[in-house]
């Protein structure tokens, strides 16, 4: 660790937060100094790791190293004002639907100066973030939204691929997910099923686990999903790259096998200035997990955001606007 | 054209410049207002096109629409100071080897305020640009180097792909080029042959056209090139993404067929934070020409540079640092 080590806080002690801690443990440029969720909050200037995370996640034992706190955001803002936290990764679920937007407004109004990054997925969630743009622009915050895998890594790949073309016909993001059993991914699977014909979020929420399993059995564990609500669409439109309705997200989820049924691929089709129609593709390696493809980019955008923040830039950016920086 | 239309100058009236004019004719956000080379210079606030370009390129007829000028750089700098040019695309060859670096220093010292972009290829050429970094940092210039295809589009793809990994093993850029006959691409083919075993730039320069043709006949028109000197290596190292020696550039050039012998592909192999080794790939559509993949990105980076310049940012950036912006 050196003088330019950035001090990071994670808000949210679920699966995403847990993997973020594991990833940050391997980084020397970033030091995780705080973790908070609705139950507890831990801060240690010298750096904290997986054990501390568990304490927060379990709630019970948080007093051993941190303390109970009903307001982790207030703790982070206070530490930022004391010069002890540079950036925040939001690993909290956006439940209720306005939870994160209201959190952002608080950070802005209560004087947080630094970078905040989310890895939100759904178009409706990111749209709510975009609605806070003015608030962010007039604050000390540089905020990067949609900075995970899709939106995120694949949004950026689409934006990059678009540069070779004069007109963009379509961006197609088609992912493959393999999971050996659905028990560990109940929430994700339920969200996926909600995107299948004949289902929606409310309907799936009302289903019992055995009803979900019956659906999985019926489709032999292979869910084919179309027109998924991922915010790549509005972020690419906002960047001026392509109209939102030309961005399609879908894929194949194999619940019965850890092997991906198809390689996750972003395909951008367009017409060059010479009148040729062609497609550029960005293909993710099958061995890379969703965590690697979400969290690596998220912290890459955090680093890019911190460099711009150092140069006095504030405001709302997305994965379609900024080139992420590799965090060593 | 609207109030935010950017006024562009191109320096260099060769093949790259000619295609840049064709591309800009299709853009509404950018207006080409000046073209210059060593012989002539044309400026028209209302916009200029291919006919004007031909006049400059031919030298003879330049007085009809522009004027002879032995110093196009001085013309561009004067017009920039008069508020009539926002950005310059350098389409000049870097011959002699310090031509562009000296040009940059002139732009910086003589008070140019705006964005300059190059699409230089060779590591040695880009290294010279990097040596002018301090000069640029203390000027009114935001300069983007290596902003073509490789380095450029594929450098950016590599930097993006790297984000999913904790350690990068290798970046391999492997291109396919098809050309039906070498007559139109003499300089490029000679440069390619210089990268083959047993050849170098001096040796190829001394060869006659029929000697070059003999080489092409011997390899049946298919040139396999390894360890090419493309600046992707030093730009990715400078961005902190991967050590230069881990970046390999090569490919297959088919001189006898317009069809590409292989799809141009960037493959980045690395290890994720979970310890998995895998590769992300970025594959260019076979129908996209070198011009489309060089020039689209170049103006995309120019737009990104202009937005940062508007926000007060100056200095030297590369295709590994900035996300290009789609120019409508």
Care to describe what's here?
The structure is a homodimer of 328-residue chains. By secondary structure, chain A is an alpha/beta fold. Chain A has two domains: 173 residues, Rossmann fold (3-Layer(aba) Sandwich), CATH 3.40.50.720; 133 residues, no CATH class. Helices cover 36% and strands 23% of the residues of chain A. Chain A contains 13 helices and 13 strands. The longest helix of chain A has 21 residues.
Summarize the helices and strands and which ones pair or pack:
The structure is a homodimer of 328-residue chains.
Chain A (H helix, E strand, L loop, with lengths): L5 E6 L3 H10 L5 E7 L3 E4 L6 H9 L3 H4 L1 E2 L3 H10 L5 E4 L8 H11 L3 E6 L4 H8 L2 H5 L2 E6 L7 H10 L4 E12 L7 H8 L7 H5 L3 H10 L3 E4 L6 H7 L8 E8 L10 E7 L5 E7 L6 H21 L4 E4 L10
Parallel strand pairs in A: 1-2, 1-5, 5-6, 6-7, 7-13, 8-10
Antiparallel strand pairs in A: 2-3, 3-4, 8-11, 9-10, 11-12
Helix pairs in contact in A: 1-13, 8-12
Most residues in contact: chain pair: A-B, 54 and 54 residues
CATH architecture label of the largest domain in chain A? 3-Layer(aba) Sandwich
What would the CATH topology of the largest domain in chain A be?
Answer: Rossmann fold
Report helical residue fraction of chain A: 25-40%
Give, in spatial order, the strands making up the sheet with the most strands of chain A: 4-3-2-1-5-6-7-13
Estimate what percentage of residues of chain A fall within beta strands: 15-25%
SSE ordering of chain A: EHEEHHEHEHEHHEHEHHHEHEEEHE
What is the distance, rounded to the nearest whole angstrom, between the alpha carbons of the first and last residues of chain A? 11 Å
Which structural category do the helix and sheet elements of chain A fall into?
alpha/beta
At the fourth CATH level, what is the homologous superfamily of the largest domain in chain A?
NAD(P)-binding Rossmann-like Domain
Tell me the domain tally of chain A.
Answer: 2
Largest sheet of chain A: 8 strands, mixed
């Amino acid at each position: 660790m050196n003088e330019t080590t950035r001090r990071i806080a994670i808000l949210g002690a679920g699966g995403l937060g847990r993997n973020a801690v594991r990833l940050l443990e391997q980084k020397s440029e970033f030091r995780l100094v705080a973790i908070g969720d609705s139950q507890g909050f831990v801060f240690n200037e010298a750096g904290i790791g997986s054990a501390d995370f568990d304490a927060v996640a379990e709630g019970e034992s948080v007093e051993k190293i941190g303390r109970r706190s009903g307001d982790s955001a207030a703790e982070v803002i206070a530490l930022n004002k004391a010069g002890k936290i540079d950036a925040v990764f939001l690993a909290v679920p956006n439940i209720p639907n306005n939870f994160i937007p209201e959190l952002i407004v608080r950070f802005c109004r209560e004087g947080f100066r630094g970078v905040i990054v989310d890895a939100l997925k759904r178009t409706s969630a990111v749209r709510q973030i975009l609605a806070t743009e003015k608030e962010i622009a007039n604050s000390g915050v540089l905020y990067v939204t949609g900075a995970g895998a899709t939106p995120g890594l694949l949004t950026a790949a689409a934006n990059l691929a678009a540069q070779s073309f004069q007109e963009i016909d379509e961006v197609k993001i088609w992912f493959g997910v393999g999971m050996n059993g659905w028990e560990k991914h109940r929430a994700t699977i339920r969200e996926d099923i909600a995107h299948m014909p004949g289902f929606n979020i409310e309907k799936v929420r009302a289903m019992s686990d055995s009803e979900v399993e019956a659906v999985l059995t019926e489709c032999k564990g292979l869910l084919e999903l179309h027109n998924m609500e991922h915010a790549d669409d509005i972020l690419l439109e906002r960047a001026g790259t392509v109209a939102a309705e030309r961005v399609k997200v879908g894929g194949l989820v194999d619940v019965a096998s850890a092997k991906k049924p198809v390689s996750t691929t972003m395909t951008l089709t367009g017409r060059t200035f010479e009148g040729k129609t062609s497609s550029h593709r960005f293909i993710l390696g099958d061995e890379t997990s969703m965590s690697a493809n979400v969290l690596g980019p998220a912290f890459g955008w955090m680093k890019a955001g911190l460099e711009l923040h150092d140069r006095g830039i504030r405001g709302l950016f997305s994965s379609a606007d900024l080139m992420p920086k590799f965090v060593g």
